[in-house]
Structure formats: C-alpha cells, structure tokens
C-alpha cells in the first residue's frame, strides 16, 4: 500500500476515535493501494484497523497478483463475502463505513453484529486526498499539460463546420494521439446560444459567425484528471460579447491572485462574484466558482459561498467564473490551481487573451 497515505488516514481515524473502517470506494482503494479494481456488483473492500491488521477482501474473479502491501482475503461466487468479512472485524468496537457501499452489504454486516456501532466515514479518505503529495502534483501537471495541447488543437477546428458532437469525437482522437487515457468527464462543447447553458451537452449544432464557443474539456493521465475551459469566438465578437469576455477573464485572474494558504474558499468565490456583480452581470453567474480535482474530476471540496474552510498547501481546485445570457452569449474561463507555500501555481498555460478563430 501507499504507506504515507495510509498513515494519514489512520491518523484521521485516531483523531475521530474510529478504531476500524471499511473503505469500498474504488478511487479511495486506488489512492491507498495504487491498484484500480472495478468490482461491479461484487464486493471489494479494504479493511483498515488502527492496530495495523489491514485486509483487502476481493473476489477470485479479479486477478490481482501483485503484492499490494496488504493481506488479501479471497472469496468466490459460491461464498458469502460479507460473512467472511464479519469474521475479521472486531465486534466489540465501532466500525466506520466509507461512502458508496451498497446497502445489501452494509445491512447484512449489521445483522451479523460485526461491530458494536456503525458510523459514517464518507469523507475519511477524501479529506486526506484533498492535499496532494509530490507524485500527485506531477501527475496533475502532466494531465494539464496534455489538456493544454488538446484545447489548442480543438480551438482550431471550431470554424471547420463540425457539429458539437463531431467536435467531441475529434477531441477523443486528439487525446488518443497525445497519449491521454480518455476523457475525465464528458466534454462541454457549445456554440452560440448553447454556450449560455453552463452544462450543455453536445448536440448537432454548428457554429456561425459571431458565436462564442465554450470548450470545457479534460483528460486523464496516470489516473489523474485535468479540467479547463476556454471560450473562443468565430469571427469578431459583438461589443457586448467582448465586454462579457473581459469581465470573466478579470474575475478569473482576480480570484487566482488572492489564493494562498489560509484564505477561505468562500472569500475566493466572493472575489470573482463581487467583481462580476459590480459590472452588472451578477445574476448571470449561476454556479459556484470552482471544485476540487484529482483522481476524480470532482474531489471533495469546492470554491463556493458556503465553504468557509481555509485553503491548504497542496490542494488543487478550479477557478471558473462565467456569464451566461440566454439567447445571446456564454463565456466561461477555467484554470486549475495548485496551492503552494505562499500562493498558487496555475497548471494551465493556454493564453486567456480573447481569441478570434477566422
């Protein structure tokens, strides 16, 4: 297992007075073991104990032959994995259950009396994952580097007559050519009026002269996610569209400029939101400013008005202000930032100057 990461989780468990825990989320298991296991309907779970008596419960269907640094407890489809697991759990102690564990497993474990008390550990591993170690930082830099190259190529295709769906297919080809591991999320490619829908799904629309085009894309590399948005224009934008673009760009840069350890997420959100509001477009900025990212494109934590937690060194999250005016124009500009000792590193290097594709 990833020893330092496991130790951080065990420290969290001790602080929360949790003696034992079941970790069943695939991303969390990957984070702690370095191995992806996608179990489908079958049970795969990592049992952690502050005493160090850890186990990985796994079906024989999954050929995990390498040494993961934890004892594997195997079962097959003719056996009851929950009953097997119950024999290893300390029944006179509290046990915490990680997020997303199916009720059919949890309820049976409760019926078997495996643990004196059951509590939620929904954010146990996710909280540790919020601050990236050096390996993770490098993986995130590389994923963003590939994403930078991809969006530069994609932007040049916006005036070639492709539909939004065709653009998404082109992006998949670009990622494959760059050596990425596919999408980190379904891309948002939106021409003209569609760009005013923040979560528009690509359809058969094509761009026309004067349209803004939102390109919100991300890939995976080394199992880590990238995410970035740039807005380009097909031909010269209207005066209003140009104004909207520059307001969003300034909001993005103002928020990034204030990021450092100790600043509250809500304060970062307010910096961008208050600026957009001061320019008369507050009602058109309809979502939070950003989200945490790592192994999953939406890790625990966000940049929003209700998150008063302080920023910590090693965190990575997006800054993505936007203005969306129905039927007219949509603009979003998004970067990923890595919090450093005294500020932040912007992982995306693609220019944010207004770009006209002719």
UniProtKB/TrEMBL annotation:
Keyword Hydrolase included in the entry's annotation: yes
Gene3D superfamilies, per database record: Creatinase/methionine aminopeptidase superfamily (3.90.230.10), Creatinase/prolidase N-terminal domain (3.40.350.10)
Domain Peptidase M24, residue spans: 138-341
CDD domains membership: APP-like
One Gene Ontology term of the molecular function aspect: metal ion binding
Key words, A-Z: Hydrolase, Metal-binding
RNA-binding listed as a keyword: no
Highest rank taxon of the organism: Bacteria
Sequence ranges assigned to domain Creatinase N-terminal in this UniProt record: 5-131
InterPro entries from the UniProt entry: Creatin/AminoP/Spt16_N, Creatinase/aminopeptidase-like, Creatinase_N, Pept_M24, Peptidase_M24B, Peptidase_M24B_aminopep-P_CS
Family stated for the protein in its record: Belongs to the peptidase M24B family.
PANTHER family referenced in this protein's UniProt entry, alphabetically: AMINOPEPTIDASE, AMINOPEPTIDASE YPDF
Name of protein: Xaa-Pro dipeptidase
Species the sequence originates in: Clostridium cadaveris
């Amino acid at each position: 297992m990833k020893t330092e990461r496991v130790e951080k989780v065990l420290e969290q468990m001790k602080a929360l007075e949790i003696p034992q825990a079941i970790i069943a989320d695939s991303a969390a298991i990957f984070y702690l073991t370095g191995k992806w296991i996608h179990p489908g309907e079958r049970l795969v779970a990592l049992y952690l104990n502050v005493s160090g008596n850890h186990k990985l419960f796994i079906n024989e269907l999954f050929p995990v032959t390498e040494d993961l640094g934890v004892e594997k407890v195997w079962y097959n489809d003719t056996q009851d994995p929950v009953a097997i697991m119950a024999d290893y759990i300390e029944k006179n102690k509290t046990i915490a259950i990680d997020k997303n564990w199916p009720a059919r497993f949890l309820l049976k474990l409760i019926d078997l009396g495996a643990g004196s008390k059951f509590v939620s550990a929904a954010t146990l591993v996710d909280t540790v994952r919020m601050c990236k170690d050096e390996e993770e930082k490098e993986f995130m830099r590389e994923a963003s580097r590939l994403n930078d190259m991809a969006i530069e190529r994609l932007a040049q295709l916006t005036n070639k007559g492709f539909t939004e769906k065709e653009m998404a297919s082109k992006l998949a080809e670009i990622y494959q050519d760059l050596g990425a591991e596919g999408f980190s999320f379904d891309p948002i490619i939106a021409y003209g009026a569609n760009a005013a829908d923040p979560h528009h799904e690509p359809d058969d629309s094509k761009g026309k002269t004067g349209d803004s085009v939102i390109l919100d894309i991300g890939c995976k590399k080394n199992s880590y996610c990238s995410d970035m948005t740039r807005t380009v224009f097909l031909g010269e934008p209207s005066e209003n569209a140009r104004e909207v673009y520059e307001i969003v760009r300034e909001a993005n840069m103002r928020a990034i400029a204030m990021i450092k350890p100790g600043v509250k997420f809500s304060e970062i959100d307010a910096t961008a939101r208050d600026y957009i509001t001061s320019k008369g477009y507050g009602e058109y900025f309809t979502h939070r400013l950003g989200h945490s990212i790592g192994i999953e494109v939406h890790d625990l934590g966000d940049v929003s008005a209700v998150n008063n937690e302080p920023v910590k060194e090693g965190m990575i999250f997006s800054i993505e202000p936007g203005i969306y005016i129905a039927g007219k124009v949509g603009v979003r500009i998004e970067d990923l930032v890595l919090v450093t000792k005294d500020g932040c590193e912007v992982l995306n290097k693609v220019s944010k100057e207004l770009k006209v594709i002719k």
